Amino acid sequence: MSESPHDATTDPGDAGIGTQGILAPGPLRTDVAVVGAGLTGVVTAQLLAEGGANVVVLDAGTARMTTTARSTGKLSVLQGTRLARIARHGDDVVRDYLAAGFAGLGWLRRTLEDLNVPVESRDDLTVATTPEQVADVDAVLATCARQGLAAQWEEDPPYPARTLGAVRLPGQAQVDPLRMLSALRARLRSRGVPVHDGVRVRQVHRLGTGVALRTTRGTVLADRVVLATAVPPGRQGGLILRLEAGRSLLTTREVPDPGALPPGFAETMSITAGPPIRSLRMADGLLMVGGEGFVVGRERDPARRLAVLDEWTRGHLPVGPSRHAWAAQDYTSDTGLPFVGPAVPRDERVLVATGYGKWGLTSGAAAGLALAGRILGEPVEWGPALEPWARPPVPSSHTAATFAQQTKGWACAVGRPSGQRPGVTRVSRICPHFGGVVRWNDEEQSWDCPVHGSRFDPDGALLEGPATKGLAPR
Ligand SMILES: Cc1cc2nc3c(=O)[nH]c(=O)nc-3n(C[C@H](O)[C@H](O)[C@H](O)COP(=O)(O)OP(=O)(O)OC[C@H]3O[C@@H](n4cnc5c(N)ncnc54)[C@H](O)[C@@H]3O)c2cc1C
Ligand code: FES
């Protein structure tokens, strides 16, 4: 797979940051340690610093490696059919979820305008392409109507394939996500907040009065910790059992004759209401197409999925040569709502933000507002609806599948399976997180764990996910 538009670019937010050496001669002490400098982490850290807290940000990688930078860049509260799913928890919960989304979107618009990062206004569409999807789109429309949103039914939406209608929500937006994140990181640093890239948190120890973080570059002692790591590292109160890791593909292609696009297409962003998911928008003159998602580590043939996406794009849109293709992953919770708050009920020392279900740009900014408000003693009104333990776990077929993968892993572990790719180290195939058996992903050249989505390079080094170390050499 070729790479994302960001892999070749320089990230100004990374300038001058060393990745060698230790953080401090002794333990580094701070009021709040924010782990993860994706969107959630940088928003949280900025608001905390503005509120007078002493903050340190730690990140295992760089801006370019975040899910934020590798996302589609839609800033929307419509979010496919997510509102209809959340409506199962009641209208009050939808109201709070929307309040969070609008707060996140508003904060981003204001802040990015200050930072001269272009935010382009777009209407967002959720499109029905099968009769089954019409019911889902109707449910989204009904939910919007109950909440007073100006969403409308559209019989003939500007979408490049046959549709059975769509819901349109005006006034949403799109952004270059790496540019957004780099500008936010740069501002954080310019305000004196240290952002340490290349520091992975391996262990989170709760102490009597605070938390000790054991990292790859020393210990950090903090009164409070925010795990803005897309998925919490390690186990963290069992939350990992309520999350599923979904990976999706994104591609860009040239559009030699923009006039041949469906009328109105370039002024909208769109996503289908169900499979096959197609998420579309124009980005700097290129067509961006996302879709063909799968559960990490459970897809036998990711290359086939990329071919399917590409064939669909060439069959439906007037496109020229391919420019980029990449994949990214995000985590969906069992309730369909983000988890933003204490990892363990009533323990304010360690806070998490996860479970955005591939809609964590608006929700990530909202999570930053909620977490910073909580720590500074100015809680947001809608915060309780998003707390991880606000409602009981919801066992589903996903939970059962994850449990089956885990049990299979433990059973296989007895045989100590290992794997090797040509020219690289032979590695154990047992995931160091919870003992899943990793599967080779030929398309991305990685070992992927089917249990909770950790990924490792061919030599076993950790790429992402809840594991905190790599595969053991064999
Ligand atoms: C294909 C795809 C398209 C998407 N498109 C959209 C979209 O258009 N609109 C939208 O709203 N959402 C979208 N999303 C979802 C959105 O991108 C994510 O929900 C959001 O970016 C998550 O932000 P984050 O800050 O929580 O995580 P990230 O951006 O992933 O940042 C987490 C950071 O934590 C660091 N980290 C992890 N573990 C550790 C550790 N142990 N120690 C130190 N650091 C650690 C990582 O290095 C990383 O930098 C998409 C997701 C995918 C997969
Ligand atoms: S990621 Fe949890 S077992 Fe592998």
Report a brief summary of the structure:
By secondary structure, the protein is α+β, with helices and mostly antiparallel strands. It has a domain at 397-464: Rieske Iron-sulfur Protein.
Could you walk me through the main structural features you see in this protein, from its secondary elements to its overall organization?
It is a single chain. The protein is of the alpha+beta class. The protein has a domain at 397-464: Rieske Iron-sulfur Protein (3-layer Sandwich). It has helices spanning 39-50, 82-86, 91-114, 131-146, 177-190, 302-316, 360-375, 397-413; strands at 28-35, 55-59, 74-75, 120-127, 152-154, 166-174, 195-197, 201-206, 211-215, 218-227, 243-254, 268-272, 278-283, 286-295, 322-333, 339-342, 350-354, 418-419, 427-428, 439-441, 446-448, 455-456, 462-464. Strands 3, 4, 5, 6, 11, 12, 13, 14 and 15 form a nine-stranded mixed beta sheet that branches. Strands 1, 2, 7, 8, 9, 10, 16 and 17 form an eight-stranded mixed beta sheet that branches. It has a four-stranded antiparallel beta sheet with strand order 20-21-22-23, with no helix packed on it. A hairpin with a 7-residue loop joins strand 16 (339-342) and strand 17. The chain is globular, with a radius of gyration of 22 Å. Mean pLDDT is 92; it is low at 9-19. The site of flavin-adenine dinucleotide has 40 residues, from helix 1, strand 2, strand 11, strand 15 and helix 7.
